[in-house]
Amino acid sequence: MIGSMRTLAALAALLVGGTSLAYAQSTEVNVYSYREPGLIQPLLDTFAKETGIKANVLFAGDGLIERVEAEGELSPVDVILTVDIGNLANAKERGVSQPIGSPALERVPEAYRDPEGNWVALSLRARVFYASKDRVTETALSYEDIAKPEWKGRLCTRPGDHVYNIGLIANRIAVWGLDATREWLGKVRDNLAFPPNGNDRAQVKSILEGTCDLAIGNTYYMGLMLNNEAEPEQKDWAAAARIIYPDADGAGTQVNVSGAILAKYAPNKENGEKLIEFLLSDAAQQIYANGNYEYPVVPGVKASDLVESWGALNANKTPLTDVASHRAEAAALVDELKFNEGAQN
Amino acid sequence: MNSSSTRAPRTRRAAIVTTAIEHQKSKTGSGRPLPVAAYLLVLIMGLPILWLGWAAIGAALGGDNGLAANMLPTALRETAVLMLWVGAITGVLGLLSAWLVTHFDFPGRRVLEWALILPLAVPTYLAAYCYVEFLDFTGPVQQLVRFLTGATTLQDYWFPTIKSPSGAAFVLSMVLYPYVYAACRTFFLMQSASIDSAARTLGASGWRTFFTVTLPLSRPAIVVGVTLAMMEVVNDLGAVQYFGVNSLTAVIYTTWINRSNFGGAAQLAVTIVLVIALLIFTEQRARRNRVYSTHRDSTVPPAHLKLSTGLGWLATTFCTALLLAGFGLPFAELTWLASRSITPETLAMTAAAAVTTLELALAGALVAVGIGLLAAKLSAPRASRSAKGAVRLAALGYAIPGTVLALGLLQPLGQADLWINRLTMALAEWRPGLILSGSVAALLYVYAIRFLALSHSTLDAAMRKRGDTMLDAGRVLGVKGFALLWRVDLPTLSPALLAAGTLVFVEIVKELPATLLLRPLGVETLATLVYARANVSLFAEASLPALGIVVVGLIPVLLSTHFSQRPS
């Protein structure tokens, strides 16, 4: 009987827990994070130590922006930490963000923040080629190269409509225009070794398997796999591949971001702005760089040694807002070309 | 859950009392409020579908059809192909194994007969993760192949790709065949042995009897089992995503999550509901044609024919292989991975998720059983035809994929929260915040929709078996309304209530797609934890919570075999 009473009490606590954030005090800030606890928690702990502002963080997966939108004006969230220009731009389009009123935004190059200040990048990640150490001899490749017939049956990537690939395709549309990108993407599709599936890490595994020679993926996954103590097998996967920065000698490699959004109905707006300022400080940027093998977004802060060892990053200069404006076209291309069904010719 | 329930014969005296009471009722008109409650139930349970239909039409009228039109042909084709393959494989395997264990005697039959339903404890997404771990390039099988042949990459040898549509069909079939097995086995046990004996007496061989008598007669049972298996295929999200199959559920998910296109997702969701309606329609038709007649005295279970040693061991091997593929392998794989990954972190992570899961499942079971009891009362034998129809409609949620239900609930719940807050602000200057959409209320709601059929059918069957004599006795003694429920229904139905609660509890523990999309932010259940880890290629880290799900899933399987070793 006592046991069941306790369960009921726990249930009540759970029910109330879902709404308790709405009553956060002014010494707190409410954060929704798409990013993993391992990376974010140390940053928030340091923030609390420095400012006395306690961060209540909820780690969530897919559909974060949709959630905040559905919560509407009742949403308790102040700051949303997410990845990809797609999600950042989407937050603005859906009207769940507001301008961040902080001079700290100036620390970030213009290409990596919203002109109205509705979002700001916190770190950079390059979308690169993972090349098989055994079966790929090229040391430099352009985006055009992977559409050539010699790569037939040798390419692999995660599904075309994943935000990371939509970002890449949208970047190509911004650079080349829609028609040229359509032609390119069709050829890339026909070079695919198998219909796209899995995530970026899974593509590296395919390189190890020998089913794929060249994969498209984000830089930091290589770092995470090379140092994966929890699943050491992944070190073997990563050891099978090396990184090639696409277009390194040309217009540069497509770069995506992780970033922060100030929620439209943020109950603790000022604290939210303070948190974003903190995340743009040199110290926090260093944690981003070392903890997740990403590139710091603030010029002058160095990337980790491992990342530096992969070579210099020549980032494509197209502003991310330009890229974001082509996302719908990119998604339509993926559908139109039936990219996710794999090679057709 | 879908087996037909036979109406218990009423005693003559009870019938007289019943008639008297019904007569009295019709005079006072007290039976009338019931259909209203039944319609209300339909409305509440059908809200997500209605909302999606509305959104789909809205998107269509707004000229936003491009996405659905582009995605639909592929999604429909891949879903249909997967359903047909799973239907065919589970149909053949389920029927054959059920026929073997009920008609023949072979080594290990007694154990296999109950053990063959164990794969039901393994949710489809877990089976997918386990099989990929086992059969993928880095798994033990291919390692062995490479060790034996000296090969280094897949270019040196051939091995079937597990992450493919055919791999998905195979893996899903391995855990879904028990639906067909259970339906066919029950059918064979109920079926009179005399038909078989007659065929044999007339000189038909074992195989000939199978093809000319057993197979045609058991068609309704096969259809029921295969339909259930196919519904699981349509509902599945984790496995198809992992295998890279662009099925309807997977496409709905990406349309909504990756493209933020609610209208398009709603249109796809409406399509899926139509596919399911077609399935149910086919199943109902097949069941209507069920014309086998049995005289009570002749329902002697088939005699177990002794097989020759060779054939006997062949049957043993076949059934054991099925059991190993559907349960042994995933269970062993999970145990092995879990034993390697026990660290303070994984233990803490699992314990936290387990507590959340148990609380959710307990609350969900209470709600679903409560509504199930209400539904069973509304569709009681004496209820009007329209009330029964309405309850049947309300219980259809079991067939709708969790992804679709979640999609259809998010917006109306958010809207309701807004109204509630505006109301409380106007009345009391008080903002309660997100009451429905940001809390477990949303989850309890979706569980109630999805598992109402489970609790309702269990309670309905129990009420029919119990008959109305007790209620009538109570009424004659002057007990009515709520007191009748409290003093007669609850005590007499308690075993059924417990059974229904257990079934719902376990299904909630296994449930993935709806929980994934509707959970309050930060709430992690065992299933969502496993899903998240597997999708970043870190499944091994989540093998402990995965093992927990399977162990909980074993509860109803073991209970049901315990209670129904032999139907009387």
Q: Keywords for this structure?
A:
heterodimer; A: 345 residues; alpha/beta; D-Maltodextrin-Binding Protein, domain 2; 14 helices; 42% helix; B: 568 residues; mainly alpha; MetI-like fold; 2 domains; 23 helices; 2 strands; disordered N terminus
Description:
The complex is a heterodimer of chains A (345) and B (568). Chain A is an alpha/beta fold and 345 residues long. Chain A folds into 2 domains: 24-124 and 256-309, Periplasmic binding protein-like II (D-Maltodextrin-Binding Protein, domain 2), CATH 3.40.190; 125-254 and 313-341, D-Maltodextrin-Binding Protein, domain 2. In chain A, 42% of the residues lie in helices and 15% in strands. In chain A, strands 1, 2, 3, 4, 5, 6, 7, 8 and 9 form a 9-stranded mixed sheet that branches. In chain A, strand 1, helix 2 (37-51) and strand 2 form a beta-alpha-beta unit. In chain A, 54% of the residues are buried. Residues 9-25 of chain A have low confidence and may be disordered. Chain B has 568 residues and is mainly α. Chain B folds into 2 domains: 65-191 and 218-338, MetI-like (MetI-like fold, Orthogonal Bundle); 341-568, MetI-like (MetI-like fold). Chain B has 23 helices and 2 strands. Chain B has helices at 12-28, 33-61, 66-103, 109-115, 124-135, 140-149, 165-190, 193-201, 206-217, 219-235, 238-243, 248-257, 262-288, 309-340, 344-378, 385-394, 402-428, 440-466, 469-476, 481-510, 513-518, 526-535, 543-563; strands spanning 104-105, 305-306. In chain B, strands 1-2 form a two-stranded parallel ribbon. In chain B, helix 7 packs across helix 14, helix 8 runs antiparallel to helix 9 and helix 17 (402-428) packs across helix 18 (440-466). Chains A and B meet through helix 1, strand 2, helix 3, helix 7 and helix 9 of A and helix 3, helix 12, helix 15, helix 17 and helix 22 of B.
